[in-house]
Amino acid sequence: MAKKENLFLKNLFSPIDCRKKYGKVYIAGFGPGDPELLTIKAQKALQQADIIFYDSLLDDTYLENFKGKKIKAGKRKDLHMKEQDEINELLYRAAISGKKVVRIKGGDPMIFGRGGEEFCYLKQRLIDVEIIPGITSALAAAAIAGIPLTQRGISSSVSFCTGHPESSIHIPDTDTIVFYMPASTLHIILNKLIAAGRPTNIPIALIENISLPGQRIITGRLYEILKGTNIFQSPLLVIAGNTVMVNHSIIK
Known about the structure:
single chain, Cobalt-precorrin-4 Transmethylase, domain 1, 2 domains, 5-stranded parallel β-sheet, 5-stranded mixed β-sheet, 8 helices, 12 strands
């Protein structure tokens, strides 16, 4: 058995190392949706890509600015273009064929984006992978809505939580809580907040279509949102905590 980092063996086998012919995969975050919030590094990767695997939530028209072949691989509730195992395999096959591949995801790939799963799958198969961060929806929504997630004297802790499926919804003990993907479970989340001991007058913000033309921001007390008749669609984000009141008047 050869010792790790044996230079003699490394030099011996280097000329026949098949990995030299492999391409590279970039797992990149697009941000919340507005192309102007895309990072320069992610844009450069897209410009160089031979193949671009993109999410359902992304704007197809913007991606037409890049020459790489586009493959829709994203998943939304009740609409799976491709299963995760199939996406992993497609990324791998594209890489071993020598292609420069970009897997572009909404928000940040490492926050509820399955970027970690894809990264591990590819690294285990000796693929060169680089992760390019994106602006996650919680940070974009807070900035756009003028809601600080932390603020001295009001909130010293914040949690990012999934709002889907119901079995995965938990209420952490932090001053501010952000729920991702809560459109179909909004009332369940609000009732779980009450069950966890949060007051019914805790401020709530709902941000729909963050940074996009159809963006909508609604704020109110928890009991008001529960009684409300508004219907929300994905993509939706919920922020719960007293910092919601800092720069917003609460609906009476």
